[in-house]
Amino acid sequence: MSDIAYITNARLSFPHIIEPQKMMTEAGKERISYNCELILTPNDPGFAAFMAKVQEMAVAKWKEHAAQVLHIINADRKLRCYGNGNEKVNKNTFLPYDGYANMVYITAGRDTPPQIIQADGKPVEPTNTLQYQALTRGMYGGCYVNAAVKPWCQENRYGRGIRCDLIAVQFARDGEPFGEGAVDASPMFGAVAPGPATSAPVAAPLMPPFLMPGR
Question: Is 102 left (phi over 0), alpha (psi -120 to 50) or beta?
């Protein structure tokens, strides 16, 4: 458990928890990922502990070259699972996405569903599909969650980087949904007036020959 970081009261963003995100690998193969982003304040103690773990793991992995490797990783957002929220810019507005400005974030994911923790701190039984789905559907972009994540050092044929596994998620409290949210169109409608008593159906008139199908 020493490699697992516990994050509390983080704002959930871009959640792909109940339905995985489908992506293409560099080899052209499809892979799925259950993932999300966790938005925190820059001085959040959980984020500080997370970054301390990253530093510790980097030193253990790359030894005397850790500082140089981390410098390269920190310079390229695609090589790391954390960053400054101001980096997350909407391509249409050229502004940071909702909730990201002047914040920090952690991106975490895995190829299998994460553990879901109930309000009482107990995990949902894996066999209880309905309860699992009900809890995950309540985790929307903008709500607050607690999460267990596990950073790890990547070094393979795709290069070096810092990645993060999403271990477990727990709904903490509601927050303002990101984006426009659900649109309420009910003010456009009124009550339906009672109609006349139902009578026997009237036979439809014959269709003129020039409107008959195939004519």
Answer: left
Q: Give the pLDDT confidence score for residue 211 in this predicted structure.
A: 46
Identify the residue with better confidence: 195 or 146.
146
φ and ψ of 19, to 5 deg: -120, 125
d(Cα 9, Cα 200) in Å, to the nearest integer? 62
Question: Domains (ranges, CATH) in the chain?
Answer: 5-180 (2.40.50.140)
Q: Which of these ranges, 14-23, 44-53, 105-114, 160-169, has the smallest mean pLDDT?
A: 14-23
Long-range contacts of 114-117 (CB under 8 A, 24+ apart): 114/17, 114/34, 114/166, 114/167, 114/168, 114/169, 115/148, 115/167, 115/168, 115/169, 116/17, 116/168, 116/169, 116/170, 117/146, 117/168, 117/169, 117/170
Q: Is the dihedral of CA 45, 16, 141, 90 positive or negative?
A: positive
| Torsion angle of the four alpha carbons 118, 20, 173, 166, in this order, in degrees rounded to the nearest 10 | 70
Specify the pTM: 0.81
Tokens linked to 22: 């489908």
Residue 31 half-sphere exposure, CB side, CA atoms within 13 Å?
13
- Residue 215: the pLDDT is 46
For the segment 69-79, the average pLDDT, to the nearest whole number, is 97
Task: For residues 108 and 105, give the distance between their C-alpha atoms in angstroms, rounded to a whole number.
Answer: 10
Helix (H) or strand (E) holding 137: helix 129-137
